[in-house]
Amino acid sequence: MDKQQMTDIIVTTKAERGLTWEKMGEDLGMSPVWLASACLGMNGAPPEKAMAITEYLGLDQDVAKALEAFPTKVWDQTVPTDPLIYRFYEIAGVYGPTLKEVIQEKFGDGIMSAIDFTMEVDKQEDPKGDRVVVTMNGKFLPYKHW
Amino acid sequence: MDKQQMTDIIVTTKAERGLTWEKMGEDLGMSPVWLASACLGMNGAPPEKAMAITEYLGLDQDVAKALEAFPTKVWDQTVPTDPLIYRFYEIAGVYGPTLKEVIQEKFGDGIMSAIDFTMEVDKQEDPKGDRVVVTMNGKFLPYKHW
Amino acid sequence: MDKQQMTDIIVTTKAERGLTWEKMGEDLGMSPVWLASACLGMNGAPPEKAMAITEYLGLDQDVAKALEAFPTKVWDQTVPTDPLIYRFYEIAGVYGPTLKEVIQEKFGDGIMSAIDFTMEVDKQEDPKGDRVVVTMNGKFLPYKHW
Amino acid sequence: MDKQQMTDIIVTTKAERGLTWEKMGEDLGMSPVWLASACLGMNGAPPEKAMAITEYLGLDQDVAKALEAFPTKVWDQTVPTDPLIYRFYEIAGVYGPTLKEVIQEKFGDGIMSAIDFTMEVDKQEDPKGDRVVVTMNGKFLPYKHW
Amino acid sequence: MDKQQMTDIIVTTKAERGLTWEKMGEDLGMSPVWLASACLGMNGAPPEKAMAITEYLGLDQDVAKALEAFPTKVWDQTVPTDPLIYRFYEIAGVYGPTLKEVIQEKFGDGIMSAIDFTMEVDKQEDPKGDRVVVTMNGKFLPYKHW
Amino acid sequence: MDKQQMTDIIVTTKAERGLTWEKMGEDLGMSPVWLASACLGMNGAPPEKAMAITEYLGLDQDVAKALEAFPTKVWDQTVPTDPLIYRFYEIAGVYGPTLKEVIQEKFGDGIMSAIDFTMEVDKQEDPKGDRVVVTMNGKFLPYKHW
Amino acid sequence: MDKQQMTDIIVTTKAERGLTWEKMGEDLGMSPVWLASACLGMNGAPPEKAMAITEYLGLDQDVAKALEAFPTKVWDQTVPTDPLIYRFYEIAGVYGPTLKEVIQEKFGDGIMSAIDFTMEVDKQEDPKGDRVVVTMNGKFLPYKHW
Amino acid sequence: MDKQQMTDIIVTTKAERGLTWEKMGEDLGMSPVWLASACLGMNGAPPEKAMAITEYLGLDQDVAKALEAFPTKVWDQTVPTDPLIYRFYEIAGVYGPTLKEVIQEKFGDGIMSAIDFTMEVDKQEDPKGDRVVVTMNGKFLPYKHW
Amino acid sequence: MDKQQMTDIIVTTKAERGLTWEKMGEDLGMSPVWLASACLGMNGAPPEKAMAITEYLGLDQDVAKALEAFPTKVWDQTVPTDPLIYRFYEIAGVYGPTLKEVIQEKFGDGIMSAIDFTMEVDKQEDPKGDRVVVTMNGKFLPYKHW
Amino acid sequence: MDKQQMTDIIVTTKAERGLTWEKMGEDLGMSPVWLASACLGMNGAPPEKAMAITEYLGLDQDVAKALEAFPTKVWDQTVPTDPLIYRFYEIAGVYGPTLKEVIQEKFGDGIMSAIDFTMEVDKQEDPKGDRVVVTMNGKFLPYKHW
Prior knowledge:
The structure is a homodecamer.
Chain A: H1 3-16, H2 21-28, H3 32-39, H4 47-57, H5 61-68, H6 83-107, E1 110-124, E2 131-142
Antiparallel strand pairs in A: 1-2
C-alpha cells in the first residue's frame, strides 16, 4: 500500500464517520496539523502513533505500515495555483526578505528549520470577519564556520 | 527617489546608528516586521507613519514620499535560493495541502488573505537551541456564490 | 465521485437535454457564470444549490456531494494556449500595470479580491460584429499596516 | 525619446500637478484606462490624442511623438508577482474554462478580441467594503472555415 | 466520442482508403489545410461540413458530432521539438520584429488575426529542389482607442 | 559598431527622411521584408547590398560593415508577448501538426527550410476589413537515410 | 502499430537474437547509427529498407509499415538528464559559439543542416582509454537574400 | 582584464589583420576549433600557448593572463535560438537516444567525455552543396561499481 | 522486466526479509551506496554482481538481467522538492563556485568526474546530534588543448 | 562595500600575492573551503575571522565589515552550466534517491543539514589519474511529530 492509497482510505473513512482533523487530533492527543500532514502522506508517523491512528479509525495494519513509511515529499507545481496555497507562496515572495532581516537580526546568521518544525492553525473570531492564525515554530540553525 | 534608493538610505542610516528593527519598532510603536517590509519597499506606509519613520531617522521628505508610494511587489526568483527564504517556500510545498485541509475544515471554502494580513516574528528560548516563532494572521475570505 | 467524474456527468446530461448554462441559470436563479464554474469543478456549491442543480438535472446524491466538495483549483498551463483563454492572459499582461494604476488611484493601496468576487458575461449586439462584455466585480482589500 | 522616458516624464508631471487619471480622462474626453495605458507605453495614441495629452500637461513634441509610436508590448514575468496583477492571472486560470464555455455558448466557436477591445474600471460603494468593477468589452471573432 | 478518438478513426479510415488531404479537400470543396486541422481536432466544423466529411468517409454520426464540437486548443511543448514545426517557431523568433515593422507600416498599429484567418500550402517545383509555399491570410485588427 | 547601434542609426535616419521599408525596398530593388530584417540585425547583407543601403541613406562605411556581419540570432522570450508576434507563435501551435500533415503528404518526410527561405507581406483590401497576406517560401529538405 | 510498439518489438527481437546495431547495419548495408535511429522511431525508413529490416528480423508487415511512417520527433527533457546525452548538450553549450565562428568562417553566413545530415560513431583504441569518435556530416545551407 | 574584454580585443585585432581562425591555427600549430574556443573565453590556454597567441597578434601580457585564466563556462539560453547552434541542440534531442544505444553497444555502460575531448570542423566539397563535417573525439569513461 | 519493476521486486523482498542496504552491502562485499543505486535502477550491475544480488535475495534471472541493463538516467524535477535531496541541490548552488575555486586550485583546469566516481555515507556519532558524512571520490579530468 | 566588491578586492589581492586558498587556510587556521566560500560572499565571517583575513591580506576595515555581513545566497542558474559545477548537480539527480535511502536507513526519517554543515576537498594521488575527494559533514535533523 502506497501513501496515495493510504490517504484515500483514511480520508474516506474520516468522511464516513463525520470526523474532523480537529476532533481526531483532540481524541488522539496529536496536533491536527501534524495529523493531517501524516494522513495526507507528507510526514511519516512513528509506530505508536501510526497504530493509534489506525486503531482509532478501525483500519488495518497495512495502513499503519504506510503511515510509518518515510515519505518522499514531492509537489508538482513550482508555483502553486490553488488560491489558498498560493497565498502562502505570495507571503514567501513578498515577505521573504523581511523575514530574513528580522530573523537574522534576532538570531544571527542562520535559518529557521523546516524540519525541526511544528505548526498550528487557529481561528480568531472577529466581528469584521474571522481570522486565520498560523503559528510556525522552527529551530534556529546557525551557519557554521570551520 | 525610487524604492530601491529609499531602502539604501534607510538601511545605511540604521546601520550607522546601530539600530535594529526591534528597537525602531518599539520606539515608533510599529511592528518590526511591518516596519522592515515598508523600509525594504514591499509595503507602502500611510503618511503619518512615513513621516514618523523619517523624522526618527533624521531623513528628509523625499524618503517619506518614497515610503508612501504604493509598491509594485516583484520578486525575481520563482523558487527562492536563499536558504532562509527557501524554507518558507518548502513549508508552502510540504504543508500546502495540509493548510488547505485544516483551514477549510475550520472556516469553510475560502482562503486566508495575504493582504488583510499581519505577521510577527518571536524568539522562543530553548536550551536545545532557540526557536523562531512566526505568527501569521490573515482574514478569512469565503468564496462567493452568485 | 471526484470533480472530474461529476463534470462529465453534468456536461453529458446538459447536452442530452439541449440545455444551456444561460437557461439553467435562469431556471435555477443562479448566475450562468457561477453555475458553469461550479459544474466544471472550479467552485464548490453550498448544499441547497448543489441539491437544486442535481434535482433539476435528475442526477443523484453523489453528484450533489461532489458539487459541494471544496475544490483544489489547479491549472496545468502556466501560459494558457487556447486562444479564447490566452486573450485573458494577454489582457493581464498588457493591462496589468494600467489596472494597478487606475484601481489604486481610486481605492488606495490594495487589491481587487478574486475570492470575494463575481463575474458576468453579456452579449452586446453590434452591426459591425457582436461584442463580448465581461464584468468582474471584486471586493477591494486594502493592505494593512500594523 | 523612448516609451520609458516618455512614461517617466508624464508620471512625474502628473504627480507634480496633483492630477489623477480620472481627472485627466474627464478633462480630455478619454477613458482613464486607455489614457493610463497609453501613458504607461502599452498603447499607441493617434496624433490628435497625443497632441491633446501633451498640450494638457504642457509637455513638448518629443513626448507626443513617443505617445504616437506603436508600442512593442512586453512583460517580463510569465506569472506576475504583484498581488493586484496576479489576481487577474488567477481569474484567467480559475475561470478560463468557464469563460470559454459561457462565451462560446452565447456566440459560437470563436474568441473575444483583446485588440478590438475596451475596458473600464469603476468603484461600487458598499458598506461592507467598496467593490472594484472591471468591465471588458471585446469584439467577438468567429473562427473561419475555408 | 472525444476529439482524439475522432482523429484516430478519421486518420485510420483515410489511410485504409489511400486518401490524401489534397484529394479529400478537392472532392469536398474544402481547403486541405482547414480540413486537416478540423480532422486533427484543432478546428470545429460547421454541421454541414461535419456531415459532408463523415458521409464521404462512411463514418457515423458520433464522428460528425465530434467534428462539430468547439475544440480547446492545447499544445504541450512551449518550444516545439519536431523539426518541421520548430522551423515555424524559428521563423516567429527570427522574423517576428520584422513582421511587426512591415505589417504595422502597411496597416497601422494592430495585428494580423489568427482567428479570422486562412492558410494554404502549395508546392513550387524547382530543379534545385522543390519549395514549400505557405500563404497565411488574416484580417488586420487595429487597436482601439477609447 | 554592433548590430544594435546599426539598427538605431538606420531606423532614426529612415524616420527623419519619412521613408518606409516598402519605398526603400522598391528603390533599392530588394524585398521590404528582407531589407527590414537586415536593418533590424536579423540577417547579414552581402557587401554590394550593404553598400547600396548605406549609400541610399547617406550613412558611412561602419554601418555597411555592420550590415555585412553575420548575425547571432537571439530572442529573449520563449513565448513572445507582443500580440502581433504572439499570433505567429499561436499559428505554429494551433496549425503545427496540420502543416506537418499537409507538407509531408505533398513532399515526403522532411521539412521546409527556414534558411533557404524568403517571405513577403502583402495587403489585400477588403470592405469588411483589409487582410494581411504573409507568403513564406522555403526549400523542402528531405531527411537522409544512410 | 505505433512507433513505440514497433521499437519494443524490434529491440526485444534484437536482444533475443544477440544482435548488435553494428552487425545488423553491416548485414543490411546500412549505417548502424541511421538504423538505430529508425528502429528507435526517430527516423522514417523508405519502403525497401523497412522491408529489408523486418525480413532480416523475421517480423511482419505491421512493423515495416510503422518503420515507414514519418515520425513526429519529440523529446521531453529541455535539458537532457542522462549523462551520456547531457554531454552532447554541454558540447552544444560550450562550443556553440565556436562552431558558429569556425563554420561561418569556412562557409559564409548559413548553417549546417540537421536534416540533410548523416552521422557515424567509431571506436578509436587508445592505451590510455579508448575514445569515442562521432562524425557529423551536414549540408551547408546559406541564408538567402531576396 | 576579464574574458569578455580579452575576446573583444582578440576579435578586433583578428579582423583588422584580416586573419582567420584557420590561418591562425595553422601558423600557431593549434587546432582552429580549440583556438577559437580559447579566444572566445570558453577554454583556458596553457601559459606557452597563451604567450604564443598574444605574441602572434602583437597583444600584451594582460591578454595572455586572461587567456590562461580558467573559465567559468556559462550559457544563457537553455534552448539556443541561433539557427546554427540550435541545429546541434536538435541533433542532441533527435539522436541522443541513438548515440546512447550505439556508443554503449560499442563501449559498455559509460559516456563520452566532453572534457577529455577534441573537435575538428572540415569542409567537404560537393557539387550538390558543400558539406560541414564535425568530428568529435572524447575519451570513453566507464561507470564504476564499488 | 524494466528497471521500475526490478526495483519494486527488490525493495519488497528486502523489506520482507528485514534487510538493510548496509547489511546487504556487507554480506555481498559491495558498497551500500552503489548497491542501493543499482537496485534503484540508477546504475547498471556487471553480470557477476547482478547474479550475486539476485541469488542473495532468492530472485530469478529476469531480475539479474534487469540489473545488468544500462540505465537511462532520468529525473523529473529540475529542482528536487524532497527536503533531503534538495539540501544537496542547495549545496551545489551555495558551494558550487567555492568547489570550482578550490578544486581547480589543487588540480588545474578541469572537473571532478561524476562517472569515474564513488560515494560513501557514514554516521558520525555526536552528543549534540549525530552527523551525516558523505564522501565523494571522483577522478580529476583535465581539459584538453589541441 | 557590497559582497561583490569585497570579492573582487580579495581575489585580486590574493592573485597579486600569489596566494592559494590552501595556503591562506593553513596560515589562518581555517578550512580552505570555508575561507573561499566566505571570500566569494556565500558565507558570513564572524568578526574575529573577518579581522584575521583582512589583516593577513593587508586590507582595510570595509572589507572586514563586508565579510561579516550576513549574505543573501543567490544563484542565477536553476541548472548550472559550468561543467565542474554541473557534475555536482548531476550527482544530486542521479544519486538523490540513493542518498535518501541510505541516509534514512542509517538515521531514521530526516535530513542532512546544509546549514550545520562543513565540507573539505582533498587530493588523492593515483597513478591512473589523481582523484578529487569531497567530504560533506552535516548534522542529521530528524522530522518532528507533534
